[in-house]
Every structure is written in structure tokens, then in C-alpha cells.
Design goal:
Layout: H1 2-20, H2 24-27, H3 34-37, H4 51-64, E1 69-76, E2 82-88, E3 101-106, H5 114-129, H6 134-142, E4 144-148, H7 153-162, E5 197-201, E6 209-211, E7 218-220, E8 235-240, H8 286-296, E9 301-309, E10 313-316, H9 328-344, E11 349-352, H10 353-357, H11 364-371, E12 375-381, H12 396-406, E13 416-420, E14 424-429, H13 442-461, E15 466-477, E16 480-489, H14 498-503, E17 509-514, E18 518-524, H15 538-542, H16 547-552, E19 559-562, E20 570-579, E21 583-590, E22 594-601
Parallel strand pairs: 3-4, 3-9, 9-12, 10-11
Antiparallel strand pairs: 1-2, 2-4, 5-8, 5-14, 6-7, 10-12, 13-14, 15-16, 16-20, 17-19, 17-21, 18-20, 21-22
Helix pairs in contact: 4-5, 5-13, 9-13
Bound molecules: calcium ion (4 copies) and zinc ion.
């Protein structure tokens, strides 16, 4: 009997594991809260995923949550990798295009990998918590998410597998202008997956470096105030790890690729003489063509986040001063979200690219803000935790202490010697592996994922949420009626950004009346609701002050174009002069925020 019982148990267990993919270990954890106990997909967020592993994780999530998740590709990268993305939509609460959508991408710079894990965490977290967390449920029910864990998977895999320089696209590019393309890549000569720095031993005084006092790594020699050496160096830096493949006397001077994909977008674009890393023309990179086409096909996108590293920044545009500052109405939206972002992501600063970082021409979020009218942020992920006394500066001593006694030298690579085919005995020294510096140590990755996801969710929550609040019909005389329509947008973002209005890049919202009645005149009630609009939001409201002029001249008054959209956190009212006593359906149709319909009987 005992054997039989065990067999039965094993069969049940096998079926459970196969059908539901529950981890064996989780089954037994009855003491955990239900949010943990019922997890369907067990993913680790203290590690990095290469593109094959990322695809497997995304498929696992899609299989566990088929109702909400769809895994698709927008096309292939230059290197032939699929550009995967996940759509999160609850079909029970409406069609995808009928809700405001949040677009999140990562890793456009191939070496800036951890945004990929933030994306994966976001999908995983939203799904695993949907059934238990009312706020998450509301977000998933109200919004759509398009999540791209890497828009440069060629660069991601190159960096994870080979190391070294992988910021750019992998599209061939002649960095040193010798007519040859990518002819001198770095080589991982010692096979440790890292591209280190190479040094040769020289006579004292001829070197750039010396042995550190600890004796286990090299440090640059100190220089005096005139820039002259203050001590004798006996190790000379000769280049990054690799050989001189083309015999031009230089090492690793033309590595794979060279076009900076985040200088390739067709907004404030400049050629390479002005903007280093630019291609021959905007959108010359196949990956950015795919991204652009996806964005064009999804006018429901109201929020954009593009993850980079590093430095701990919540960046907004513009990328260049020449663009001029954003309109006040847009600034108040950016400020409201960005400043709260500083609270959500500990230690990050909300800053403007050109003034707080550096000038960027042809950057992704200039394109999404200016040419698509989308409120766009870009987070520079990860800020070192080695500022132990929290005075805002990290000294060498603090860094060494952190590495040794907090990170426990997880990323430490001892200095070592190799035989170089061209240079003889060469010292390779790099202090730390690639999984440090620009990315967090593994044990801090999950926190980074969570906080940055939380910021994206805050951004997504504050996308427009327009609705028809009230319909009233007043009889004027006979079959003439005044129809009053009160519209409400309960969130911070307006349905149309000032950039979208100014650049005419978004179809206006449409307020339509469907039914056998005539609309003789229509206009916005300018004085309506002004006193109810909080002082700080009046600027959104006042922005629409000339909109009645736009639509009164319109030929088709039953489909009113609200050319200034609906301001954030505000109510506005439209009035129609209607002839006819019938049932009518009033529909508000916003590209960014969906549709709302209500019926009224006019009598
Ligand atoms: Ca070359
Ligand atoms: Ca190159
Ligand atoms: Ca190496
Ligand atoms: Ca060379
Ligand atoms: Zn970057």
C-alpha cells in the first residue's frame, strides 16, 4: 500500500509539474503568503539573461499567462536575432488599441544590459501579482504595455559573451577611416570572457602605471600640477586586450559596428561631423527602422521609457539646447512624474539630457516626444553604493572597501601574465569584471528592477484616462435642445501633449453624436469648471482657450475634432444645439486613452 501511495503521489506530482510548471520546491511552501505560494513562473533576478535565455523566459511567461501576454517580434536585427516584445493586455477590459499604452524598451546600447532584466521583471511582476494586488490589477486592466527587453540583441549578446566594446550597433562601420570595415576587433586572449587592459614591463620612468601598494593591481602614476609624472612608472599601457589584426600599429581600433543607435532617430538628427556615432542618414540602422514602424502603428502609446545605464538619472529631453525648452504644459507633466520618480528610485536625479548630461542629436526620446507627442523618459540605471559616508563623493578608499568587504570581491579578476603573439610577455589587469561598474552587483539587481518598474508603473498610471462624465439635454423650444457634454480626464497627462498639438502629429480627439438629430452649432463652454480646477492645473485647462474657434467652423458638427484634447486632471464641457427628439449616443474617442460612449434620450 505504501508503495502504491507513493506511486500515486508521484503521478499527481508529475502531472502538476508538467501542466502547471510549479516548481517542486514551491509546492511544499505552505507557510508562505499566497502571493508567493501561487507563483507560476520562477525566475531569478540576481542574474543576467542572454538573448536565447531571455526568449526562453518570455515564452515561459507567455505560456503561463496566455490570456494577457503575447510574444511577437517586430523583425530581425542586423545579426539575425528576433526583436522580441511582449504585449500585456487584458482582452476582457477592452481591445488593445482602445487603451492608453506604455512602451518600455531597453539596451539600445548593447553594453547597457540591465534594462532587459527590468523589462523581464516588470512582465513577471505584473502577471504574478495580478490576482492579489488591487493596484496591479487596476493598472493591467486599464492599460496596455509593450515591453522590449532589448532593441539591440546583437550588442547584448556580444557584450555578454565576448565582452569589450558593444555600445553600438553591430552593423559594419569603418571607425578608423582606412576603407576596411571592423578589421581590428578586440580578442579575449586569456579566454576569461572579459576584455582587460594590457601592460608591458618597461624601465622605471618609461611607464604609465606602477604596482599599487597592495601589490595586486596596477595604478596610474601620479602627476603634478603641470601634468608631469610625480613618480616612476614601470608598466606601460599598450591597449585593450587583443592583437593588431591589420598591422597598422594600433590595437583594436576598428571593432564590430560603430553606429550609435541612439543617434539614429529622425528628430534633431545631425551627421557624424557634429554627432559622433551618427550613421549616413536618420534611421539607417535596421533595428531603429523596426522600432519606428512599430511606434507609427501604435498611436495608443502615451508613455515611453527607454532604459540605459548608468549614473542614476531620470532623463527627459530635449537632447539639444537648440531645440528650445518644452512647452509649459508638457513641462508640468514631466515635472510631476519625474520629481516623484526621485522618491520612487532612491538616489536617482531627475534631469534634462542636454543641460544635465550632454548634447544628443537624433536620440530616441526626442523622436518620441517631438514627432509622436509622447511623454518620454530614459533612466540611466544604477548608481554605485560605495559612497559609504554618504557625502556625495566616492573616494578610492571607499570603493576598495566596498569591493572587498561588501561585494566580497565577486567581480575581482587577479592581475596575470600571458604570452602575446606580437608583444611577448603582457600583463592583463582590469581590477573588476564587466559585471560591475555600469551594472549592479548581482545581489542588488532585483532592487534596481523593482524600483525602476515602480517608476514605469507610476508613469503608466498617469497616462490619460478620459471619460464622459455627464450628459444633459435642456429644451430650448419645440424640437430645439441644448445638449451639454461634460468630459473628464482624471489623470495627470492630457490626451494630447503640447508637442503633439504644436507639431500636429496626433489625430485630434473626436466627440461624436450618433442618432437621427441635426447638430446646428457646437462649442466649448469656456467658463465651465474653471473654479473647480485646482490652481496648479489651470494651465492645462487654459491651454484649450482657443479650441472653440477650431471646431465651430467645422463642416461635420456631429464629429467634433477636439484639436486641443482634454487637459490632465480637469473637466471640460461642450455644448451642442440639437434639432430633433431622439435617442442619441455620444462617443468620446481619444487615440491616447480610448473611447467612452453614453446614451441619452432627448425629449
Ligand atoms: Ca577600418
Ligand atoms: Ca567598426
Ligand atoms: Ca580576457
Ligand atoms: Ca590595427
Ligand atoms: Zn546608453
Amino acid at each position: 500500500m505504501k508503495t502504491l501511495a507513493i506511486k500515486k503521489y508521484l503521478i499527481c506530482y508529475f502531472v502538476t509539474v508538467t501542466v502547471f510548471s510549479f516548481g517542486a520546491q514551491l509546492l511544499a511552501q505552505d507557510y508562505l503568503p499566497r502571493t508567493w505560494k501561487s507563483r507560476k513562473v520562477d525566475l531569478a533576478f540576481n542574474r543576467y539573461y542572454d538573448w536565447r535565455e531571455m526568449e526562453a523566459a518570455l515564452r515561459q511567461l507567455e505560456q503561463a499567462y496566455p490570456k494577457f501576454l503575447k510574444l511577437k517580434s517586430i523583425g530581425k536585427s542586423y545579426g539575425g536575432r528576433e526583436l522580441w516584445y511582449i504585449t500585456i493586455n487584458n482582452p476582457d477590459t477592452g481591445a488593445e488599441m482602445d487603451k492608453a499604452a506604455m512602451y518600455i524598451d531597453a539596451n539600445i546600447h548593447g553594453n547597457e544590459v540591465q534594462g532587459g532584466e527590468v523589462c523581464l521583471y516588470t512582465i513577471w511582476y505584473l502577471m504574478e501579482n495580478y490576482a492579489y494586488n488591487a493596484h496591479i490589477k487596476k493598472l493591467v486592466d486599464e492599460r496596455v504595455f509593450y515591453i522590449f527587453p532589448s532593441v539591440n540583441p546583437d550588442g547584448r549578446d556580444y557584450w555578454l559573451h565576448k565582452g569589450g566594446s558593444a555600445r553600438t550597433s553591430q552593423f559594419p562601420y569603418d571607425d578608423d577611416n582606412d576603407g576596411l570595415y571592423d578589421e581590428d576587433p578586440a580578442e579575449d586572449l586569456d579566454g576569461d570572457g572579459e576584455i582587460g587592459a594590457m601592460f608591458i614591463k618597461v624601465k622605471p620612468g618609461e611607464g604609465t602605471h606602477r604596482l599599487a601598494d597592495s601589490g595586486d593591481h596596477l595604478v596610474p602614476i601620479k602627476k603634478n600640477i603641470e601634468g608631469k609624472p610625480d613618480e616612476l612608472g614601470d608598466y606601460k599601457f599598450v591597449g585593450t586586450e587583443g592583437i593588431d589584426n591589420d598591422g597598422d600599429g594600433r590595437i583594436n581600433e576598428d571593432q564590430p559596428g560603430g553606429i550609435d543607435p541612439n543617434r539614429d532617430f529622425g528628430s534633431m538628427w545631425q551627421p557624424k561631423g557634429i554627432q559622433r556615432g551618427a550613421g549616413d542618414y536618420p534611421f539607417c540602422w535596421v533595428e531603429s527602422q523596426h522600432t519606428r514602424d512599430f511606434l507609427y502603428a501604435h498611436p495608443n502609446i502615451a508613455g515611453v521609457q527607454a532604459f540605459h545605464n548608468s549614473g542614476g538619472m531620470i532623463l527627459r529631453g530635449p537632447g539639444a539646447q537648440l531645440r528650445g525648452e518644452y512647452k509649459q504644459a508638457d513641462l508640468s507633466v514631466y515635472d510631476a512624474i519625474g520629481k516623484d520618480g526621485e522618491k520612487i528610485i532612491e538616489g536617482y536625479r531627475y534631469i534634462v539630457v542636454w543641460s544635465g548630461l550632454y548634447t544628443v542629436w537624433g536620440g530616441f526620446f526626442d523622436f518620441t516626444h517631438d514627432l509622436l507627442g509622447i511623454y518620454s523618459f530614459s533612466n540611466e540605471l544604477w548608481r554605485s553604493r560605495a559612497d559609504l559616508d554618504q557625502d556625495g563623493k566616492i573616494t578610492d578608499e571607499e570603493r576598495d572597501f566596498f569591493t572587498k568587504f561588501v561585494d566580497l570581491e565577486n567581480t575581482y579578476v587577479p592581475m596575470h601574465e600571458i604570452d602575446h603573439s606580437q608583444l611577448g610577455k603582457v600583463i592583463i589587469d582590469r581590477d573588476v569584471t564587466k559585471l560591475s561598474g555600469r551594472v549592479p552587483p548581482s545581489w542588488l539587481l532585483e532592487e534596481l528592477c523593482h524600483r525602476n518598474m515602480a517608476f514605469c508603473l507610476y508613469h503608466a498610471y498617469n497616462m490619460p484616462m478620459p471619460s464622459i462624465k455627464k450628459l444633459e439635454a435642456e429644451k430650448i423650444s419645440g424640437s430645439l435642445f441644448r445638449l451639454k457634454i461634460t468630459l473628464y480626464n482624471e489623470r495627470i497627462m492630457p490626451t494630447m501633449s503640447a508637442a503633439a498639438i504644436e507639431n500636429k502629429v496626433q489625430r485630434p480627439d473626436i466627440l461624436s453624436i450618433d442618432g437621427p438629430v441635426k447638430a446646428l452649432a457646437a462649442g466649448r463652454n469656456k467658463s465651465y469648471g474653471l473654479s473647480q480646477v485646482p490652481e496648479r492645473y489651470r494651465r492645462y485647462f487654459l491651454r484649450t482657450e482657443d479650441s472653440d474657434v477650431d471646431y465651430i467652423d467645422q463642416k461635420d458638427l456631429k464629429n467634433l475634432r477636439l484639436t486641443h484634447g482634454i487637459p490632465g486632471k480637469a473637466e471640460i464641457q461642450y455644448e451642442f444645439l440639437i434639432e430633433g427628439k431622439r435617442n442619441v449616443t455620444v462617443t468620446l474617442d481619444c487615440q491616447k486613452g480610448g473611447t467612452d460612449s453614453q446614451k441619452i434620450t432627448i425629449q
